[in-house]
Amino acid sequence: xxxxxxxxxxxxxxxxxxxxxxxxxxxxxxxxxxxxxxxxxxxxxxxxxxxxxxxxxxxxxxxxxxxxxxxxxxxxxxxxxxxxxxxxxxxxxxxxxxxxxxxxxxxxxxxxxxxxxxxxxxxxxxxxxxxxxxxxxxxxxxxxxxxxxxxxxxxxxxxxxxxxxxxxxxxxxxxxxxxxxxxxxxxxxxxxxxxxxxxxxxxxxxxxxxxxxxxxxxxxxxxxxxxxxxxxxxxxxxxxxxxxxxxxxxxxxxxxxxxxxxxxxxxxxxxxxxxxxxxxxxxxxxxxxxxxxxxxxxxxxxxxxxxxxxxxxxxxxxxxxxxxxxxxxxxxxxxxxxxxxxxxxxxxxxxxxxxxxxxxxxxxxxxxxxxxxxxxxxxxxxxxxxxxxxxxxxxxxxxxxxxxxxxxxxxxxxxxxxxxxxxxxxxxxxxxxxxxxxxxxxxxxxxxxxxxxxxxxxxxxxxxxxxxxxxxxxxxxxxxxxxxxxxxxxxxxx
Length: 494
Description:
This protein starts with a helix and ends in a 12-residue tail after the last helix. It has helices at 3-7, 11-23, 32-39, 59-71, 117-122, 149-155, 164-170, 173-185, 196-205, 214-225, 230-240, 243-246, 248-251, 267-284, 291-299, 304-307, 321-335, 342-353, 356-362, 367-377, 381-390, 397-421, 432-439, 445-459, 467-482; strands at residues 26-30, 45-51, 75-78, 83-88, 91-97, 99-102, 111-114, 132-134, 143-144, 157-158, 193-194, 258-259, 262-263, 309-311, 315-317. The protein is 53% helix and 11% strand. The strands form 5 sheets. The chain has a 7-stranded mixed β-sheet with strand order 3-4-5-2-1-8-9. Strands 6-7 form a two-stranded antiparallel ribbon. The radius of gyration is 30 Å and the shape is elongated. The longest helix has 25 residues, at 397-421.
């Protein structure tokens, strides 16, 4: 068996080949599967492009239905897009007719017509994604590569089949895809770069991103954040001017301002280092990559440009940038059409709390401070701690080592406090209904104030975390502060 035949060893390829021959059409494996074969990367998503005879409509759908009938598989048909998909022996196979596309300047909706294989390859985004394997009996497994994709793959080059300005004008999302592929495919042994003429076209055409929906842009961003080298992607987007088109808040972190010979940390580079650290720590701890933790790392210092102040004799300060950043998170999510549900709230919480563990490193670690951190972070405490550990960056290795040692001491203290108090899942023993019934109150601010007093007393270590202690404390405070006496001393909170 030759190397290419090994790539096409799955039974679905022979089945497609035989069925295409019976129907009198030509079928080719194209795109990511072909690319990943040469990279040695597993890929269970297979794209089949079908070159039909003139006058034949929906050749991809027709071939998919015929293959599905033979292998007794269910086929999903998307007639509006001219595509069909089936699953067979653990892989997903999508069929589409070969086509050519043309675009109007201000629209992302192409005019689609039937075309040849080469016309279909020409409309592809990059040469490395335009390679195809023939499934014809006479040249089964032959590589069809009119634009030198195999050469570019070996050289680690991202290049468009057409002149890049035409490719990016037709679909501006391809500018982001080029960057995402460079970040996704790069390894220390085999880095990928985007050709200079492509980068120059991106700089000229960055504003063209405005015709795209925010959802399409975010889909690419999410994929970048889950690559091995997201920092590379964001550096390229900043360098080409793409980033400021949809996330200018992040671009504003770039640069260093100097007053009286004193400059501050370059916060854009720092942010990307924190992001890379998060991915590294996730891998070291055997965690699955968490997209929303990556977003929290990306946005953790987003409030610094607004909070930045120069204080003579002291230098640069960013006081309150975590609070400012947390307020910015919902606005950024809304602008990008991202979910405004618990995922946004998770990112907002981590941005708001990301300095708290660091503050414990710098100060004497008290049980009270640890309890409050555990209470505020709740179930997200482990993610917060990973983010804060990733946030320890410095050009001074001794400083980093010292902070990391102190950070481990804080983690040990947290484990001790949590084992004793179970604060992570803390729930106030005193309920609002209990307070109203005990004192005969209607809903009012007094109820919330009493519950807050109990919470603070537990977190500060004044009383143990038990109902009996909380109830006695609450009754005493109600009498002392509000002049309230319990109606029934036998009542107990549920």
